[in-house]
Amino acid sequence: MSDSLLPGAISDLVAAFSALPGIGAKTARRLAFHLVDAPPEKSRQLHRALSRLDTELAHCPTCGFFSRPGEACVLCASNRRRTGQLCVVGRIQDVLAIEEAGVFHGRYHVLGGYISPLNQVFPEDLRLVSLQERVEAERITEVILAFDAVSDADYTAHYLLELLPRTVRVHRIAAGIPFGGELEYTDGITLSHAFTLKRELPH
Length: 203
Ligand SMILES: [Zn+2]
Prior knowledge:
2 domains; 5-stranded mixed sheet; binds zinc ion; Dna Topoisomerase Vi A Subunit, Chain: A, domain 2
């Protein structure tokens, strides 16, 4: 690669950008060159933002959403959230998509992915134990699975049905999410319909 012609300070930056999802070699080079030419404050701002990830970011010990180290997230800390109901999602981005659609006002539980033996993701890799504990401790009567329409999510939904006590009603959001579709990329209206038309899973 011609990047070997570049001084290490730039080629390392190009390599770091290239390692990010959705960033090809050309885009990585364009971003790196942009920063080289930009006023120093622009790189300093990026540097500050990246170093805060190390020191100021954690996962909420209760639900798995982002929080400050050792603290509950804003969603768990809020006393305006409806209780008794949990919306279980695969990833943090899904919480943001649902919040943006304004279709759910209770509390969340972020699994951290879906069970996927092919990709070496097993039940113990996900926040399942804490989900069971919450269902008990928070007297949850209804769980809404807001999952992507992919087969790993289907498998995870079935696994959760076995895991959760039979006294808990389990719903899965339904219509409108195309097969293979991800919540993150689903528009608010479709997501809102999917919540309205959620179906109860036989338990
Ligand atoms: Zn939380």
